[in-house]
Amino acid sequence: MMSMLGKIKDVQAKLKQVRENLVQITVTSEAGGGMVKATINGDRQLVKLEIDNDLVKPEDKEMLQDLVVAAINKGMKDIDEKIKEEFKKGTEGILPNIPGLDFGSML
Predict the structure, then answer these.
(1) What percent of the chain is predicted at pLDDT more than 90?
(2) Less Cβ around it within 10 Å: N or C end of the chain?
(3) Which residues pair with 29 in a beta bridge?
(4) Are 29 and 71 contacting, i.e. CB atoms less than 8 angstroms apart?
(5) Could you tell me if residue 105 is inside a domain?
(6) Rounded Cα distance, 29 and 27, in Å
(7) Quick check: is 78 in a domain?
(8) How far apart, in whole angstroms, are the C-alpha atoms of residue 17 and residue 83?
(9) What is the Cα–Cα distance from 95 to 53, expressed in whole angstroms?
């Protein structure tokens, strides 16, 4: 029983460490062939938005809005995958391999 409690504390400490490190990982996703780029960190915050100068025209406003939304949405999906990878790496050997265990839900 004591061994199990010790293992639980190890898991809690490791998960806390992984959560704290998430803000340091980022993904950059593109839309419109790279004309719009969104960089999102592991805390799911948009930290940078790049827009190609050719898109900054009043007549292209609607297309620009669509590309920004597409880049951010893709970035959110990409960072979720990266977060899951970090949790898997951070808890390797500590948590049992349980089919269907969603590391993203541990946030």
Answers:
(1) 18
(2) N
(3) 38
(4) yes
(5) no
(6) 6
(7) yes
(8) 13
(9) 48
**Residues 18/50, Cβ–Cβ less than 8 Å:** no
pLDDT at residue 99, as a whole number = 60
Domains held by the chain: number = 1
Q: What pLDDT score was predicted for residue 100?
A: 60
Q: State the Cα–Cα distance between residues 8 and 4, nearest whole angstrom.
A: 6
CA distance 11 to 94: 6
Q: Is residue 97 domain-resident?
A: no
Beta carbons of 85 and 66 less than 8 angstroms apart? no
Is residue 106 in a domain?
no
> Which pLDDT tens digit goes with each residue over 11-25?
888 888 888 888 888
Give me the pLDDT at residue 34, please. Answer: 93
pTM for this prediction: 0.61
- What CATH number is associated with residue 26? 3.30.1310.10
Please answer whether residues 67 and 35 qualify as being in contact, where contact means their C-beta atoms are separated by less than 8 angstroms.
yes
Residue 46 has pLDDT above 80, yes or no: yes
Q: Which amino acid is at 95?
A: L
Task: Tell me which residue range forms the domain holding 18.
Answer: 2-92
